[in-house]
Write a structure and sequence with these properties.
The structure is a single chain. By secondary structure, this protein is mostly helical. 64% of the residues lie in helices and 0% in strands. It is built from 14 helices and no strands. The chain has helices spanning 23-33, 35-41, 48-55, 59-65, 69-81, 86-94, 99-113, 123-136, 140-145, 147-166, 177-194, 208-223, 227-233, 236-239. α7 packs antiparallel against α10 (147-166), α7 (99-113) runs antiparallel to α12 and α11 packs antiparallel against α12. The longest helix has 20 residues, at 147-166. The radius of gyration is 21 Å and the shape is elongated.
Length: 244
């Protein structure tokens, strides 16, 4: 009987083109490649050997670009924090505070968190796994990752809520505006976590798009918008063009 020899497995990064990279390109490629293994095992559960294999380089080359695991993890943190859709954030900051802007803010957050990208695991899922491991360890990555929300998104939520309340399109309520904003983010993140396994933890009986719409409706009501305002401003198909 003829023996079939299976080829040795290769890392995700090793499947890239063998074209020679500059030092900066190599460094950037390593940073991107190691996200998955950090997401799967966290900082403390990952070895430099595993990181090198995942990046398709030797440990010696890895240490040439990063003196230690801490430096590589820090570079990955910075890289992730810079990928929050700068153009979209600029568009949002330019909008006048209002109930309609509030709807846009929450729709974009939820649709981004619950989006599906093929093939393989989408980048949002990797970010959520990194966040979970960070929270279970020292929280440094999670805090860095949320700085953009804390400095831009949450203040915008507060301004929009105040404008919506003044226009009688939202209720005052006992919950502080900035806390309402964080609760919306944590709601979207919590739903995303339950979708992470191949067989999702909760079967909502909805497509991903339908689920996102349900989460948005729940979040908009929870944050204080009236049903009339939600019906007036929430059009998922139209809002999808905003980030285009």
């Amino acid at each position: 009987m003829k023996t079939i020899v299976k080829p040795k497995s290769t890392s995700r990064a090793a499947t890239r083109s063998a074209a020679k990279l500059t030092s900066e390109e190599r460094r950037a490629a390593i940073v991107v490649a190691v996200r998955q293994v950090f997401a799967e095992k966290g900082f403390h559960g990952t070895t430099t050997r595993e990181l090198a294999v995942d990046a398709g380089v030797s440990e010696a080359l890895l240490f040439k670009h990063f003196p230690n695991k801490e430096a590589l993890y820090a570079a990955m943190q910075i890289s992730c924090s810079q990928q929050l859709g700068e153009l979209v954030m600029q568009r949002l900051e330019a909008l006048e505070p209002s109930a309609s802007t509030l709807v846009i803010l929450i729709h974009l957050l939820v649709s981004h968190m619950l989006s599906v990208k093929a093939p393989g695991e989408d980048d949002t899922s990797i970010q959520v796994r990194l966040m979970l491991h960070s929270i279970l360890e020292d929280g440094e990555f999670a805090r860095l990752r949320l700085q953009k929300l804390a400095s831009c998104w949450i203040p915008k939520i507060e301004e929009c809520l105040q404008a919506a309340i003044a226009a009688e399109e939202a209720v005052v309520g006992p919950v502080r505006p900035n806390v309402r904003g964080w609760f919306v983010h944590q709601l979207a993140a919590g739903v995303k976590i339950h979708l992470l396994p191949t067989v999702q933890v909760v079967d909502y009986g909805l497509s991903r798009e339908q689920l996102a719409e349900q989460v948005v409706w729940f979040a908009l009501r929870g944050i204080g918008l009236t049903d009339a305002a939600i019906k007036r401003y929430y059009n998922p198909a139209a809002l999808a063009l905003f980030a285009g």
